[in-house]
């Protein structure tokens, strides 16, 4: 019984932008030759009082960080290049420090179930970045 994990995020650049609540399901155990991690995903735009609502529902915050970078699109692929910053005082996004000098490159696709061809497209795109970036499939169980 793994914990039920939700991710809440919002843009810091523009005030009044909606919060986004995301549920990520457990990774599918399947073909080891698959080039990408596959899991269910539900993404919902919400109102400004999302954090209060989640606390009332019994959820608790596990961690908080700021990501600064750029979003690119190539077809249905979304490529995000960003640095992660640690928040020094909880809730104060002005007081931050970088976790690393490196950038994180994230490549993801939202596709219907059974679309294994999409993972081949992701691998082909990653091959084009190979001299500069090493993209790898991360096992979330290894991080815990």
TrEMBL record:
The keyword Transcription regulation applies. It comes from the Eukaryota. The gene is MED18. Belongs to the Mediator complex subunit 18 family. It is found in: Nucleus. Component of the Mediator complex, a coactivator involved in the regulated transcription of nearly all RNA polymerase II-dependent genes. Mediator functions as a bridge to convey information from gene-specific regulatory proteins to the basal RNA polymerase II transcription machinery. Mediator is recruited to promoters by direct interactions with regulatory proteins and serves as a scaffold for the assembly of a functional preinitiation complex with RNA polymerase II and the general transcription factors. Its main location: nucleus. Keywords: Activator, Nucleus, Transcription, Transcription regulation. This is Mediator of RNA polymerase II transcription subunit 18. The keyword Transcription regulation applies. Component of the Mediator complex. One of its GO terms (cellular component) is mediator complex.
